[in-house]
Amino acid sequence: MEYDRYASAVRHEYASFTNDVMTEYLTRSAAGVESVGAFRVYGLGKVSGLLARVLTLTNDYLAPTGNGALRDPRDNVWIDTLRHIAIKNVNDLIVRLMGGAGRLADTLTRPAGAVGLLLQRKVARPELTATDHSGRKWQADKLVAVMARDFAYQAYLDATIDKLKGEGVEWVQVAHPSAYHPHHGLVMRLAEVGQLRKSIFHPNSHARLVPHVPT
Questions:
Q1: pLDDT, tens digit, for every residue of 138-165?
Q2: Beta bridge partner(s), residue 98
Q3: Across-strand partners of 211?
């Protein structure tokens, strides 16, 4: 589906962003060069580039649905959240640089056994994390993937509901790729979809809404 392709494209852009800022961070850390100000400028430039590309992807995705175009990342909760996550990624790396890049350089050159080498690798490439709206901590790339997919899926669902309303459809049913899914074939009024939206049309769902045709 188009929403999965959108999510995949966003994941690719975010992975490219994190690879760039992480490479820059590791280069400076391994050399014992902090240059926090220069890294901040570099990182925020990468954030701007990421948001510009995702904004283009989003508008290209939304255009056929009739959901309208976005001009600023803050126009949409999902993209604004992506902005906060990306800025946090950069800030977390800045904090590490300020904590002493020289000490990290010493650690990387110090002889170590197998356990020590694993520790060095963990220290050398820190895990980027983010917190969702419920306060749960995630690996940042996984949270971005979930949020991108949910945004696209919910936009698709909104467009479907608007289309069905415009066609005067009153009764709809849930269609699933698997006929054995417990929600497959569930019939409801179109006006009742909102009551079941979170339980049926959740971030990982593949459910679709189609007009119900009585047999």
A1: 999 999 999 999 999 999 999 999 999 9
A2: none
A3: 172
Residues of the chain with pLDDT under 50: 101-112, 116-122
Residue 42, pLDDT score? 96
**149 token code pair:** 């997919």
- 18 in Cβ contact with 26 (< 8 Å): no
Q: Name the token pair of 210.
A: 């189609």
- DSSP per residue, 144-212: HHHHHHHHHHHHHHHHHHHHHHHTT--EEEEE-SSTTSTTTT-EEEGGGHHHHHHHHS-TT---EEEE-
The letter for the amino acid at 20 is D
Q: Are 89 and 140 in contact (CB under 8 A)?
A: yes
Task: Tell me the C-alpha distance between 118 and 192, whole Å.
Answer: 53
The string over 20-34, giving b where at least 16 C-beta atoms fall within 10 Å of a residue's C-beta and e elsewhere, is: bbbebbbebbeeeeb
The residue behind tokens 């283009």 is 56
